[in-house]
Predict the structure.
Amino acid sequence: MAQLVMLAAAGSAFAATGKVYVADEGANTVSVIDAASFKKVGSIPVGQGPHNVQVSPDGKWVWVTNNGEPAKAAEAAEAMPAEKMPKSGHGAMAGAGAVWVIDTATDAVTTKIAVGMMPAHVVVAPDGRMAYVANGGENSVSVLDTAAQRVVQTVPVGAMPHGMRISPNGQQLWVANLNGGTVSVIDTAAQKQVAQIAVGKGPAQVGFTPDGRFGFVSLSKENKVAVIDPASRKVIRKIAVGTVPIQLYATPDSKLVLVANQGTPKKPGTTVSVIDLASMKVAATITTGAGAHGVVISRDGSQAFVTNTYANTVSVIDIAERKVVATVPVGKGPNGISMLP
């Protein structure tokens, strides 16, 4: 059972607006960007190696996965023999994990909840009652009661679970198993895995169109995106994109999917592929910064924000114009990204 550390009472009933949150994995911070001015307006100290962030549906909280207190995480890593260190191959995710919760009204950490080893992504249910954390080092997903702020269930999934998304109707959680070649399907009512979909090599992140017609998974070791029929749970086609695609996100009108192509440290990817769902082809390729990784799209569908892991920046894309309109310096190694609804 997770240990809970309450740092402060719940914050204001009114959430702040117009902010984008970025997990700076190499800086142990979360950067805050003003979505109107495209400027960094804050930096929040968090745990060791924050990998992913997720704003709650009501906009009041930001959930951040990390490896706990920086000093303790560093001590644990030092004490562990090198040959026994987990081999992630994707991000820091190096030890016993935690989720920290930020109040968006104050941009202060209010809560710390212990989860499993090597936590990767966190998502929050549409009704805000449950949060889910992929534990990459334990092949499991932690289910958290957001009101009680504790782990209430642990669900076994595939090998090295990474990116996750909840279906538009809230009934399923899909989990990309990075080393398993599958997507786990979790029934959110029963809180158990009900299927695994064979998808291909290196599934890193999943997604859905808001209308529920299609599901997706980036295949980081195939340089492709697999399109999945949610009803049959079968891959219906694969679309070639850039090198080492990681995060992907559908536009609110369910017409496009933006895919960040990270590449490698030696050969960084610098593009976002824009998939047109009518033709199921890449309709545009937008140049961003080195190591394009995380993607989030504004509620009105006009803009996308993309983290550039190797450039320590966030690119702002005008989706209609299909071009970068701003580049925002953030902390070292920006990874996951989320914004207020």
